[in-house]
Amino acid sequence: LTPAEQAAARSLGYNELLWDEDEGEVWVGQDQTPWGMLPEAHRKAWAELGWNQEQWDARQAKKTFSLPEALQTYWCSLSPSQKEAAARLGLYQQTWDENSEKGWAGKSWRELWN
Fold it and tell me: What distance in Å separates the CA atoms of residue 50 and residue 111, rounded to the nearest whole number?
């Protein structure tokens, strides 16, 4: 990438490792996938953002659960490791902040990208 392209990629939350690992797709459909069926890398990323199996399963069953704290804040307040985890899931600053403003709680995963 040119220096300008690298700067643009960094502004979207990429670093060299994330760029090289990115498969160019957002993994939509996670809300219908049981925690244990998620790829290990995605479980780790969601866990870094505060999710655990109990919360995940409760959300799928439409039961009451506590939304992870990270999902209630803006991108700038996330730790570097949380930003990297979000990026691994296809979530970057613009999408993250738009949903932090509107609230993640009542949205399906598909709504996050529409």
Answer: 20
Please tell me the pTM assigned to this model. 0.64
Angle at 113 between CA 37 and CA 36, to 5 degrees: 10
User: For 73-102, b where at least 16 C-beta lie within 10 A, e where not — what string?
Assistant: eebeebeeebbbbbbbbbbbbebbeebbee
d(CA 95, CA 87): 11
Identity at 39, one-letter amino acid code: P
CA-wise closest residue to 30 among 78, 80, 89, 98: 89
Taking alpha carbons only, the member of 109, 113, 111 closest to residue 42 is 109
Residue 58 identity: A
* Residue-by-residue pLDDT tens, the chain, 114 positions: 788 777 776 665 566 766 666 554 444 456 677 888 888 888 899 999 999 999 888 887 777 877 888 888 888 889 999 999 988 888 888 888 877 755 555 555 566 555
CB 109 within 8 Å of CB 31: yes
